[in-house]
Design goal:
Radius of gyration: 24 Å
Largest sheet: 4 strands, mixed
Helix content: 40-55%
Number of strands: 8
Number of domains: 2
């Protein structure tokens, strides 16, 4: 009888521990906003092209914050700072969330530019991607300025030359994004940047990305969106 009771207690304890085990889909975001004493933060996601709040955090005296919720698949989310009457554009930090724990350290004065995001492999890859892409963006902006001056001087030859240079930059951006996706087939950020940056690329490059994408990523949020879009483009190519 004592052995039976002991066995039941062990079983109950096992079931209880099993129920309390953290979900593999739990997402925890911690962080600190230096200089923020009072305010409200929102964690948002894009739904039907609109940013929709999925959690809110009240800051009152302590600039540290924490949020926890279920996240089924890695996803680009946004940490929005409600500045009240302020019209500052520096109020939204995009971050590539994935199940687990992430941390964002930033400041009130430079909310977006000071952001240091850790805890996500997809975020690390996205930072790497953005660093290279920013160089292309800077080059393109310089050419836009030169092109504007050429228009004022009505220099058709120079305008045509600058246009060719801009086309070359666009091709390099598309090629880099394609190579990034192909070289990181097991990262959910790959289908994300494909859809966000090169959705209109030649179909053969989309096919290359599809062929290298791992089954796990293909089943993720952005993997499914990519596969749906790929199917639509495939029909158009036929």
């Amino acid at each position: 009888m004592r052995k039976l009771l002991l066995a039941l207690l062990i079983l109950i304890s096992f079931v209880s521990c099993k129920k309390e085990a953290p979900s593999t889909h739990t997402f925890v975001l911690t962080g600190n906003i230096k200089g923020l004493k009072e305010g409200k933060l929102y964690i948002q996601r894009i739904t039907d092209t609109l940013l929709v709040p999925i959690d809110s955090i009240i800051i009152s005296g302590d600039s540290n914050f924490k949020s926890e919720f279920k996240l089924d698949s890695p996803e680009m989310l946004y940490l929005f700072l409600d500045r009240g009457v302020s019209n500052s554009l520096d109020n939204n930090i995009p971050f590539f969330a994935e199940p687990g724990t992430m941390n964002i350290q930033t400041s009130l004065d430079f909310f977006t530019t000071d952001a240091k995001i850790t805890g996500s492999k997809n975020q690390e890859l996205y930072d790497e991607y953005k660093k290279v892409m920013s160089n292309y963006v800077d080059q393109d902006l310089d050419l836009y300025a030169k092109r504007f001056e050429a228009y004022k001087k009505k220099d058709a030859k120079l305008i045509d030359k600058i246009q060719q240079q801009q086309n070359a930059i666009t091709k390099r951006k598309y090629l880099y994004t394609t190579n990034f996706a192909v070289n990181h087939p097991d990262a959910e950020v790959s289908p994300y940047v494909t859809l966000a940056e090169i959705y209109d690329i030649n179909f053969k490059y989309l096919d290359t990305i599809k062929q290298t994408m791992t089954p796990r990523v293909a089943k993720s949020l952005y993997g499914k969106k990519f596969m749906k879009y790929y199917g639509e483009r495939q029909k158009m190519e036929q």
